[in-house]
Specification:
By secondary structure, the protein is an alpha+beta fold. It folds into 6 domains: about 1-65, Alpha-Beta Plaits, CATH 3.30.70.100; about 70-140, Alpha-Beta Plaits (2-Layer Sandwich); about 150-265 and about 380-445 and about 725-780, no CATH class; about 275-370, Distorted Sandwich (Calcium-transporting ATPase, cytoplasmic transduction domain A); about 455-485 and about 605-710, Rossmann fold (3-Layer(aba) Sandwich), CATH 3.40.50.1000; about 485-605, Calcium-transporting ATPase, cytoplasmic domain N, CATH 3.40.1110.10. Helix content is about 50%, strand content about 20%. It is a multi-pass membrane protein.
Length: about 775
Amino acid sequence: MNELSLRVSGLTCAACATGLTRYLSKQSGIRTANASYTNATLFLEYDPDIISDFSQIDSLIRKAGFRIPAERVTLACHGMEDGRRMDTCVHALERVFGVKSVSLDEAEATLLVEVWPIGLSTKELTAILRKEGVNASVVKVEGGEEEQEQLQQVHMLRRLCAAVLLTMPLMWNPSPALQFVLATAVQFFPGRFFYRGAWQSVRSRCLNMDFLVAASTTLIYLYSTYLAWTVRSDIQLYFLSQCVLLCLIFFGKYMELVARGVTARSIRGLLNLQPDEAVIERDGREIRISVSEIREYDVVVLHAGDRVPADGRILSGDCLIDESMLTGESVPVHKKPGDRITAGTLNRSGGIRAIATSVGKDTVLQKIIRTVRKAQLSKAPIQDYADKIAARFIPAVLFAAAGIFCVWYFALTDHEFEKSILISCGVLVVACPCALGLATPTGMIVGMGRAAELGVLFRSAADLEKLCKVNTFIFDKTGTLTCGTLHIAKAIFFDEEKEEQLLQMIAALERYSSHPAAVAIADFCSAKGNGTLPISVDSFTEQVGYGVSGCVKGHNILCGSRTYLENQGINLLRSFESDHFPESEYTEIYASVDGKLAGIFELSDQLREGASQVIQELQARGIEVWMLSGDREKAARAIGTQSGISHILWEVRPEGKAKQLRKLQKEGKIVAMAGDGINDAPALAYADVSIAMGNGTDIAMDTAGIMLPGGRLEAIPTAIDLSAQVMRNIRQNLIWALAYNSICIPLAACGIMNPSIAAAAMSASSISVLLHALRLQKFTPKKQ
């Protein structure tokens, strides 16, 4: 299954998004579909064997009544003098998934490429042309996400202005014919926006706000038209009410779009962190190129004030890097040769040369953007509650409006059609459940965006909702509570004559593992053995959480914990005197060659800065804190004591961590697990909420529901506070939305609210929900 996220035009309310989701979910080849009105985005999971061309997706979305806006990329080409080569380039681009069309301007030597908004980069387009022997550079890109958002706001503002200008003359009560002309213009020119939305909702079988607005204004318009052309006496017409109603709703829709644009500020802020150009070294000289043209292993030159264009490693120079986009911490970090730098971070001072290790879509910044976007499209369990109400609400309102008309016409008045129709129209307008549909997704989107700014990435809305309910926290030791950068405090070898050979073989074997202990031992052995490594390792096996084994130069080598070697039949206590095994606070790793103990490594690690404060803060909130470690008792207790944790388990295998976690869950506890390694993955998978540190392995990062890219433990209390704040905000919005309908529908049914007042109240309700959700952007972490 393939995944993609793209922008969709025509989502005018939450019900539209629900209708599109339902329609696409029923189509062949679509496994998952989730549309969001709040950020006008659609997430799709589809089968590439069934949907092989993007035009199939475009066709499905158009059939549902919506549209995908294409981006336009203009490329200046060099080396396209040959006509045959021009055609080859055009055909090569047209075959790319995500390219809508390609047109060639031979006079200007440019290509205009229309691409669907699925993240196809200009770098990929220029790379395709390069394969055809054509060098291309990007001239301009039009129709991007921010441009589309602004365009929608402009179009809505034009509709609002047109409606207001045509409505103003009606206030002077002109002749019935002129009123009819003006009202017709308002109803069917700017007002056709609602007819289009109503038709889409009927096709998708999910009635929305547009349907209610179109129905109510059409009823008033038709009744007023009837009076204008059939009743000759001086009688009140309701064209003004119909037009004012549309003006107020257009104003509300415009304000919604403005507020919706603000909710996307966090994503745009992340996108703006990527610089447009970079300076690199090529052929012995420095040149300035587009960031999209940077390739792996290019040497990037950075001066003070430059943003890092790609993930990399410093070759020379030192600097102060502002990593607040990763950690939420504004204090710059000193970087020296060998240290890693991340795309989007800012060089505050100093000059460096760095080699690019990850570029384009593979950078940490782009992964963060993709994670946030996907998370913002996910649904929280609390949203199911609101969706179930909204799905049944509009049909119920239609029946209620019809019933109220009958009650007023037949029972409460002497067959007064005017009053009955106006009251029923007021009910239709005021009952729109837009506020209910916006309450949850808006809060979630703003909350996740703010979390990303503070160095916390939520994979889904469910994780954000559940985090504030956690009452038990489990921490792994190495790499989570500690820095994870192990150092060899002491090394003992028992055959000095073969020490050089042993160092080479252990270094070669440990290079195959990503465990922090293996990395430290490999670096130590390589340095002590003068950096010489054997040609190859004949075989390699890793028992996660225990150790590694393999065959190097015909020798069977084991490296791992005491338990691991003893399980392999190596009796450590009988091999040497027991004074080689003191109960130290260090982590001990044993190495054997051909069944005999050959060496012992004692590894030291430091408690993370701020770890003890984080533990104290969690405990002060009534959260029970545990530490599970695969290390020996004394080493585990030493870190546990320093951090202030009393519940400590040591020598725990990966499956043992998962077992302990399930045991706590059976006791009725909601458990969060924070870890960073492969051996934490089983427990992370079982946890109610799982957290991976930013320096963790890919498996841990893929398993976890929450990621801390900067690896700061201080972000955990911040994430809990933000989760609680978001859920409080959502509950307040839901209560307001339900209270609004509970109060306003009876008032409209009693004739107290005419359609114009009902429209103003409905717009105010939706805008207030959006503005209340936007308050989450001002969330500030507590000082620790």
